[in-house]
């Protein structure tokens, strides 16, 4: 919990999360429990660390690839649909306590199929948890199928075709009742994650072209460790509609690219899904103070604040909001603007956006009076 006067407001502020990897919410406790249930030996940090040792190791990542080594090993504990359901249920319950109202949740099917776990198994578990979150917690959600950029692009295309042909993106499979158009698709979009360098955007034109042709929404990680040019190329070559991280669009050092890129992001209302605690843990930034929050606000870039891999990076969405508040001391009205920007960049129906926007207005109105800001 942060020590700022705004903490109680930040807790209740209605939130949208767009950048979280569900496998990255696998807390060590559940990891060990599922590994024991499924008889999986975990070769982590010297063959059998305790919870505390593992958490300590998570504080010492040297970069993205160091983290990913742990991330891929830990997810080997996820085997059947009920494991994925429990994982996602735990996330949604924590998100609800932080007043997340809409969550866009990424997952990595290739990291599971490599271990013999079918796409349908993963989707079955995640879908059950999403439906319960909607019913019991009032959280709407979207599932984003990510392709791993360290694997051959043709395998990503094959995964996309498998999902498309199974009807997961909607449209192509009829259940005989002729009501497909009314249904929300199981999958709401595609993404691209894993090691950024040296896997540039031009490798993914076929995949993203196929997704665009099928009317599927498209986001992609870019500019986390890779250069700002990867962000430009993700927009130009892949027709990505939003950018996960995109941090390097705002950091000094890529002169000649960043200024025009920022103008373009603003002009085209491309949302950056930023993750400050992740950036610090993966050493993309030295500290939260270096997060370019003021530049983003001053330029009018659309962005949201997210947890990325909350079990690994020291917190969920609220802890990310709090870290920024401690570093930058924003006003209630500034947070209201950030929360509303996140709603506007969400992949949900307009009606849902209006609902959340009005919740934000009510909470911000109440707290700006409470904190004497008006
Ligand atoms: N970056 C890239 N790939 C990922 C991440 C990340 O932060 N988390 C999980 N997969
Ligand atoms: Zn990510």
UniProtKB/TrEMBL annotation:
Site keyed Important for catalytic activity: positions: 245
Cofactor: Zn(2+)
Active site: residue positions: 224 (proton donor)
Record: residues binding substrate: 309
Enzyme class: hydrolase
Enzyme Commission code(s) on record: 3.5.4.2
Subcellular location: Cytoplasm; Nucleus
Reactions accelerated catalytically: adenine + H2O + H(+) = hypoxanthine + NH4(+)
Pfam families tied to this protein: A_deaminase
Binding site for Zn(2+): 19, 21, 221, 308
Sequence ranges assigned to domain Adenosine deaminase in this UniProt record: 14-362
Cofactor note: Binds 1 zinc ion per subunit.
PANTHER family, per database record: ADENINE DEAMINASE
Family as reported in the entry's similarity comment: Belongs to the metallo-dependent hydrolases superfamily. Adenosine and AMP deaminases family. Adenine deaminase type 2 subfamily.
Function: Catalyzes the hydrolytic deamination of adenine to hypoxanthine. Plays an important role in the purine salvage pathway and in nitrogen catabolism.
Listed HAMAP family: Adenine_deaminase
Name of the protein described by the UniProt record: Adenine deaminase
Species per Swiss-Prot/TrEMBL record: Apiospora phragmitis
Highest classification ranks of the organism: Eukaryota, Fungi, Dikarya, Ascomycota, Pezizomycotina
């Amino acid at each position: 919990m942060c020590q700022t006067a705004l903490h109680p407001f930040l807790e209740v502020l209605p939130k949208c999360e767009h950048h979280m990897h569900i496998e990255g919410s696998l807390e060590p406790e559940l990891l060990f429990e599922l590994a024991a249930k499924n008889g999986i030996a975990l070769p982590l940090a010297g063959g059998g660390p305790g919870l505390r040792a593992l958490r300590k190791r998570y504080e010492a990542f040297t970069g993205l690839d160091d983290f990913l080594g742990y991330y891929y090993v830990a997810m080997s504990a996820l085997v059947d649909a009920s494991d994925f359901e429990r994982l996602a249920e735990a996330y949604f319950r924590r998100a609800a306590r932080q007043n997340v109202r809409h969550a866009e949740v990424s997952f990595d099917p290739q990291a599971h199929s490599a271990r013999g776990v079918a796409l349908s198994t993963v989707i079955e578990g995640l879908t059950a948890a999403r439906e319960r979150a909607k019913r019991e917690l009032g959280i709407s959600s979207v599932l984003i199928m990510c392709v791993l950029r360290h694997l051959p692009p043709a395998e990503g295309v094959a995964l996309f075709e498998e999902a498309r042909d199974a009807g997961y993106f909607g449209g192509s499979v009829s259940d005989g009742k002729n009501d497909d158009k009314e249904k929300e698709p199981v999958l709401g979009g595609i993404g691209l994650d894993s090691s950024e360098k040296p896997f540039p955007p031009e490798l993914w034109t076929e995949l993203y072209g196929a997704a665009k042709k099928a009317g599927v929404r498209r986001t992609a990680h870019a500019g986390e460790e890779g250069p700002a040019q990867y962000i430009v190329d993700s927009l130009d070559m892949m027709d990505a509609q939003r950018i996960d991280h995109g941090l390097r669009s705002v950091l000094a050092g890529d002169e000649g690219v960043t200024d025009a890129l920022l103008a373009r992001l603003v002009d085209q209302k491309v949302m950056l899904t930023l993750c400050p605690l992740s950036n610090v843990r993966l050493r993309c930034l030295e500290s939260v103070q270096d997060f370019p929050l003021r530049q983003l606000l001053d330029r009018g870039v659309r962005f949201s604040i997210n947890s990325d891999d909350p079990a690994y990076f020291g917190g969920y969405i609220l802890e990310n909001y709090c870290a920024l508040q401690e570093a930058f001391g924003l006003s209630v009205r500034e947070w209201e603007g950030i929360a509303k920007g996140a709603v506007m960049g969400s992949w949900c129906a307009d009606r849902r956006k209006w609902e959340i926007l009005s919740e934000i207005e009510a909470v911000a109105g109440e707290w700006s009076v409470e904190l004497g800001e008006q």
